[in-house]
Amino acid sequence: MPVPLAATASASPTSGTAPLAVALTGGASGGSGIYTYSWAFGDGSTSTAQSPSHSYAAGTYSATLTVTDSAGARASAVVGISSYAPIVVTANGTPTTGAAPLGTSFTSSATGGNGGPYTYSWDFGDGSAASTLQNPTHTYTTGGSYIATVTVTDSVGNTGTGTVNVSPISATLSASPSRGNFPLPVTLNASGSGGSGTYSSYAFNFGDGSAPVSGSAASVNHTYSAHGTYTASVTVTDSLGASASATTTVTVTIPPLAVTATASPTSGLAPLAVSLSASGGAATGGVGPYTYSWNFGDGSAAVTGLASPATSHSYALPGSYTATLTVADSETPSAATATSTVAITANPPVPTISGISPNFGSESGGTTVTISGTYFEYASAVKFGSRTGTIVAISLTCDASANCSIQATSPSAPAGNVNITVTTPGGTTLAQNDQFTYVMSWTHAAPATLPAAREGAALSYYGSTDVLFGGDNGTLALGDTWTWNGTAWTAGPATGPLARTNAASVNYPDANVDVLFGGCPTIPVAGICAAPLGDVWTWNGTAWTHVTPTGTGPSARTGAAIAYDTHNHQLIVFGGHSGLAYLSDTWALSYNAASGNWHWSSVAGSGPSARAYMAAGTDASGQIVVFGGYNGTSVLGDTWLFNGSSWALAPFGQNPAPSARQLASMGFFKNPGGGNASGLALFGGITGATGVGTAQSDTWTWNGTTWSLLVTSSSPTARYAAAAAEDANGGVLIEGGNTGVLDTDETWRLS
């Protein structure tokens, strides 16, 4: 049998708040043929769709589906629909504006839906936990604009919502920097949130007692000038007049107390005046005002209680010092202190010499010399040339002008000029001016064998020996030859020149011989030789040779002067006595090495006045020096110089000089004992005619321009007509002479 026609109807949703959109679904089974559908929604509306949608106003409805098959059979199905009025929620809060943290009390109520009971859920809009109370209270901790939403649900799940706008105002404040040493410049930065969103005023209070600052600027600069912890605050007011405040802490610390000592100058010659202070003129940090003190580091009293670090100090003595600056601040209850040091060097000044007394002394040393000058404190050495003297006494303190003196004894040294230098920690005096002279001294030689006593002998230096010829013993003229090697006399050859006295002799280096000229073969009577000689002899170190120069030569004479002319490499003969008269002519004797010939020539020009028995020699500068003599009436005391072409009277005017005399002994000395002394030495002589004048014992030296009296601890006794020449040791050798009473055979050496 056929299946009966059946209809099915369903709806989704079957309940809800109006307007309620419902999807309806129809179905059929059984019957026959094709189905047709007809919906009656229960609110007067219909539809022929199998599964239509329909919106229901509030109410309770039965939706009926009628299905008709092709045979005309009908079947129906019904579905119930409940459409409720919407849930209307009323929500309020109080207060909804104000400064955060803002506590707000919320209320809510609902109508509609199925009429309740209702459940409530509050979302406060700030991320905090929800509340299920109908009327909760909530605190907004920060400013902002929040929407508090309450959701109301009825017993069948219908919902409705209500909202409350809450705008708490808040402020923030930051300090940059928020910590540091005073004086501390700080920028305070404020900001507002919530409220109206527009902020019209920022009122700053710095918390340090200074005047508050208000304005529209959200930032302000302020300097905290004292240490402490400060609470800075700001009140931000919005355009509706709501305000909020914020604070921040500023910590101001005391900067470390510091000071840097300064000095100007930091080095120099003692006594050193130094200006002391601190870098920048003051200490830094700590709490002012400051109190300063200085310890100068030289044992002097410290200076304390200064309001300024600036002071001055004089370092009187040389040395290295550390000056210490101490500063104390005014911090309470106890002051902080800081120290700083600065190194100061007071250098010893370089000493100077202003005077030396005496300025000469013996070669044997031991002369106590007082040296005047400056800055001799702490002298460590006194040198005489390269040799060190012995310090006897030092002025421990110089006067206000740095003048002081030192005494030292001279060491032994060869004759000559040396520089005295004084060495102190400050340096060494300049070596200049040859301040001290080691004077030559006389030594009485006592060789085992001596030439017989005599006067008027000729003596000249040859090589490393001296050759002595002739002279007279007061009775007879002598013709013996002796050589001196520096330690002993040796008798020479028996042959040689005719016996004679008062001959002139000298070394002639260009011919490598000594030359002997003239003399008297008899004893002069009152200085007059009746028949003087004019012959020339040479000595080659072992034998005498008679030479006959070409050319017209000087007349025979005795008591002439002979010396080597370094300029023209010839010998110069001057003056003498011809037996009839005192002479003033000048002659040159030269030697031609190529031909072996000797030659006389006359030297033109005027020179010394006529005289005989003068002293002559060649000095260290190469000029020939003639001193004194006798002119038959009086003895002479003038000095004449021959420069190779002409004679000139020495431009004296100086004093002292040797007194007038004749028959003085003159010899050349050169670096005796290794020293640097060189020149001519003049010894003895007689102040008048022989038998009338007085024999002399003084010694003089000639340096090329000046005569100087040589004071020695010992010397030969007064005598005249002693033979003299350069010694083998570079000094001066004299032999014999007449003491005014008798002839002597003594040998003396000056070196």
Written overview of the protein:
With 751 residues, the chain is mostly beta strands. It has no helices and 64 strands. Strands 2, 4, 5, 7, 8, 10 and 12 form a seven-stranded mixed β-sheet that branches. Strands 9, 11, 13, 14, 16 and 19 form a six-stranded mixed β-sheet that branches. Strands 15-21-20-17-18 form a five-stranded mixed β-sheet, with no helix packed on it. The chain is rod-shaped and about 215 Å long.
Question: Would you summarize the structure shown here?
Answer:
By secondary structure, the protein is an all-beta fold. The protein starts with 5 loop residues before the first strand and ends with a strand.
Write out key terms for the chains shown:
751 residues, mainly beta, seven-stranded mixed beta sheet, six-stranded mixed beta sheet
Question: Could you give a short account of the major beta sheet?
Answer: 7 strands, mixed
Shape: rod-shaped
- Secondary-structure class: mainly beta
Which segments are poorly predicted (pLDDT under 50) over 5 or more consecutive residues? none
Proportion of residues in β-strands: over 45%
Number of helices: 0
Topology:
Elements: E1 6-12, E2 15-17, E3 20-29, E4 36-40, E5 46-47, E6 53-56, E7 59-68, E8 74-94, E9 97-99, E10 102-113, E11 119-123, E12 137-140, E13 146-153, E14 159-176, E15 179-181, E16 184-193, E17 199-205, E18 213-215, E19 219-224, E20 228-238, E21 243-253, E22 261-264, E23 267-269, E24 272-278, E25 291-295, E26 303-306, E27 311-315, E28 319-328, E29 337-347, E30 352-357, E31 360-362, E32 368-374, E33 381-384, E34 387-388, E35 390-394, E36 403-409, E37 416-418, E38 420-424, E39 427-428, E40 436-439, E41 442-445, E42 458-462, E43 465-472, E44 477-484, E45 489-491, E46 504-508, E47 513-519, E48 533-539, E49 544-547, E50 561-565, E51 570-577, E52 582-592, E53 597-602, E54 615-618, E55 624-630, E56 635-642, E57 647-649, E58 665-670, E59 678-683, E60 699-702, E61 707-710, E62 723-726, E63 732-735, E64 747-750
Parallel strand pairs: 2-8, 9-14, 15-21, 23-29, 31-40
Antiparallel strand pairs: 1-3, 3-6, 4-5, 4-7, 7-8, 8-10, 10-12, 11-13, 13-14, 14-16, 16-19, 17-18, 17-20, 20-21, 22-24, 24-27, 25-26, 25-28, 28-29, 30-32, 32-36, 33-34, 33-38, 35-36, 37-40, 38-39, 41-64, 42-43, 43-44, 44-45, 46-47, 47-48, 48-49, 50-51, 51-52, 52-53, 54-55, 55-56, 56-57, 58-59, ...
